[in-house]
Amino acid sequence: MWELSLNVRNGEQLLLVVVIPVAIFLAATTTNFLPTLADSPVTALATVLTVSVLASAFTSVAISTAFERRSGALLYMSTTPLGKSDVVLAKVIATLFTVMLSCGAVFIAALATSFGSITSMALMLPLTLIILIGGAVAGASWALTLASTLRAEGVLALANAIFVVAILFGGVLIPLDQLPDIWASIAQYLLPGALTMALTSVLVNEAIDISASVTVLIWAIVGTIVASKSFRWI
Amino acid sequence: MKFGAKTALDRLDWRVPEGHIAAIMGANGAGKTTTIQLAVGLIAPTAGSIRTLGLDPDHDRAALQSSVGVALQSGGLYPTAKPRAFLQHIARLYSNPADVDGTLEQLGIDPATKTPIKRLSGGEQKRLACAAALIGRPSLAFLDEPTAGVDPVGKREIWSLLEYHRANGMTIVLSSHDPSEVERLADSVIVLRNGSKVLDCPLAHILNPVGAITILGPAHLDTQTLAMALPTGLGVFEVAPGLYRILGADSPAIASTAAAWAAQHGVSQHNVQSDRGGLEDLVMIAIRGAEL
């Protein structure tokens, strides 16, 4: 609860995980700045859910963890009865809550603006949830690795830069088939592109994109292993 | 304890009795923080063994943590949290915590303050770190320079809180650069120099309101002969190997008796020094002795 309350009360984090994804969804569905999303609220939902996961599980976790590491808060908490494993567990739970908060806000925006087309895919929600959790674990594990590698200011800059580049050129807001071929063939195996494809396939086509889903899973497994080896308390 | 090629602590042999306040002194980089980090399991020793409350802090860390409170030198307080909410969060992690508001008031921090921790002054943050270490009423607390940068009033508030907890049976290990703090609080003191212990004794063997004489010479001389030559009632202690302390020395006659004894053992006159019976001079002599 403590971890979560810190996340939620931090204004910049709320802007990142709630306001930005909801604003992108509304802009994408009500204006024509992203033509592929304007006509299909479900495609827009699938796409913006990836934005939510990247914002709440990757960028937000990387920045907050890096500053907790710099302030010594992580190290201090590891000396309390919480201990190291519970500190990590608290972070995981708080992150999942934040991801759900972010995705929930986007869902509500989608229901409010495009009720008819969204309710038709209600049956796919459990599968969507599993993919979102996979994406969240992948994003958060790489966030912890980044937070353990650089100074806090460096993490702040890089995590935000990766977020912007990922949603613009990672096969998220601009579909892979509109990106240069060489880059698209790489981006489909990166987390943002694969997560978007996996979500789009489930929500739009009501089918499982095995290749994209397995890619997300591999990012999550490799990320968890790398994070557990690289994580630093101080 | 080694960090790479650098030896941070070298064969430190030290015990702290239950219910005592024990102080670690020494220059920056002497090994004070390393000692505390080893004792709470934040780092593992490269050689030797440590027992904290009878447990190995490296392996039994989880079991140890509910009985130990820690105040890190660097703080470790959540910058965006409010002091009271932070302390309540820490208190909830322990089974029998002290009163949060009472502890904050005792340390001169307004429990109702809305100021986030990062906007508190350095001294207030130190006080809050102390409060966090003690709020769970652990049986053992480690405080790394708890009063560094704290104003005189704040220092006294922290000292009173530590004395209160000692009176209730808590064992406290603190590091400090302030001789007057150690004189007021500690039951015993060790002084580290470059990772080695150069002094380890009860404060009762160091302090005397009248005055003291310190002799720096070979280790383990026969102090009985000196004690017999002195007026009765004066304490003579070897407070570290080769470091002798005569407590209650207040006259030139005692000084010349001490000098004569020292000369018999080949100790030159400039290694016999009178002081006001405080800790500061002795720490300086102990560190100088280790350099000889």
Protein described:
The complex is a heterodimer of chains A (234) and B (292). Chain A is built from twelve helices and no strands. With 234 residues, chain A is mainly α. Chain A has one domain. In chain A, helix 2 (11-30) runs antiparallel to helix 4 (41-71) and helix 8 (125-149) runs parallel beside helix 12 (210-230). The longest helix of chain A has 31 residues, at 41-71. Chain A starts with a helix and ends with a helix. Chain B is an alpha/beta fold and 292 residues long. Chain B has two domains: 2-193, Rossmann fold; 207-291, Alpha-Beta Plaits, CATH 3.30.70. Chain B contains ten helices and twelve strands. In chain B, helix 5 runs parallel beside helix 6. Chain B is elongated. Classes of the chains: A mainly alpha (234), B alpha/beta (292).
Features:
heterodimer, A: 234 residues, mainly alpha, 82% helix, B: 292 residues, alpha/beta, Rossmann fold, 2 domains, 6-stranded mixed beta sheet, 10 helices, 12 strands
Question: How large, in whole angstroms, is the Cα Rg of chain B?
Answer: 21 Å
Our count of domains of chain B comes out at 2
Instruction: Name the helicity range of chain A.
Output: over 70%
What's the story with the biggest beta sheet of chain B?
A: 6 strands, mixed
Overall form of chain A? globular
CATH architecture of the largest domain in chain B: 3-Layer(aba) Sandwich
Q: Biggest β-sheet of chain A, characterized?
A: none
H/E element order of chain A: HHHHHHHHHHHH
- Indicate the mean pLDDT of chain B: 88
Task: Assign a percent range to the helix content of chain B.
Answer: 25-40%
Which ranges of chain A are low-confidence, i.e. pLDDT below 50, for 5 or more consecutive residues? none
- Give the N-terminus to C-terminus distance of chain A in angstroms: 23 Å
In short:
The complex is a heterodimer of chains A (234) and B (292). By secondary structure, chain A is mostly helical. Chain A has helices at residues 2-9, 11-30, 35-38, 41-71, 73-79, 83-113, 115-119, 125-149, 152-169, 181-187, 191-204, 210-230.
